[in-house]
User: Which sequence fits this backbone?
């Protein structure tokens, strides 16, 4: 793996405040394209996406999470969905969605944009589905808030590796 990928993985941060500058639709497509290059079980590609830039929809979505201020301040959102009709294994398909989302976050950084993975909104996933006018086979996995970062000095910590490695055999 090239060191630039390792650096991108380590230097990615959740970005929660954005300038008012809109995000080009082409950039949102690039982010989604990176997502769909994620691995998936049987290569079933169970992910689906909703792109939101409309201010009214964003305001309605903001009411569905305690992190509404992030949504309200983000010029673009991408709802990441699982298509239940494409799902073959609940656990593996959810894992595929996670891989897809991480690819999208890294792509966002590569495009000099910022993003945060919003999961708390899942508690209102049914309301979100109605706001988007989606069929019931689509299950919300996350909403990504995306924009031009207003700052890039966020810090994040990870515990030492030794705390995670339970055994070396
Ligand atoms: C499954 C999941 C759900 C998350 N939900 C939220 C959320 O609802 N609101 C939020 O501000 N950040 C959310 N985050 C972002 C985490 O808080 C963030 O990734 C973590 O604090 C580490 O910071 P870093 O991404 O800058 O390394 C979520 C991340 C994941 C993976």
Assistant:
């Amino acid at each position: 793996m090239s060191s630039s990928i390792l650096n991108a993985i380590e230097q990615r941060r959740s970005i929660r405040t954005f300038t008012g500058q809109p995000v080009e639709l082409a950039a949102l497509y690039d982010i989604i394209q990176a997502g769909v290059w994620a691995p998936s079980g049987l290569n079933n590609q169970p992910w689906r996406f909703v792109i939101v830039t409309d201010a009214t929809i964003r305001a309605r979505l903001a009411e569905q999470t305690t992190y509404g201020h992030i949504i309200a301040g983000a010029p673009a959102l991408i709802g990441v969905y699982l298509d239940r009709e494409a799902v073959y294994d609940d656990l593996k398909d959810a894992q595929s969605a996670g891989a897809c989302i991480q690819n999208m976050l890294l792509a966002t950084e590569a495009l000099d944009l910022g993003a945060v993975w919003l999961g708390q909104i899942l508690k209102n996933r049914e309301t979100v589905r109605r706001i988007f006018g989606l069929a019931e086979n689509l299950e919300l996995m996350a909403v990504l808030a995306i924009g031009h970062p207003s700052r890039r000095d966020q810090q994040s910590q990870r515990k030492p590796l030794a705390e995670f490695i339970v055994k070396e055999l």
Q: What stands out?
A: Residues 90-110 form the longest helix (21 residues).
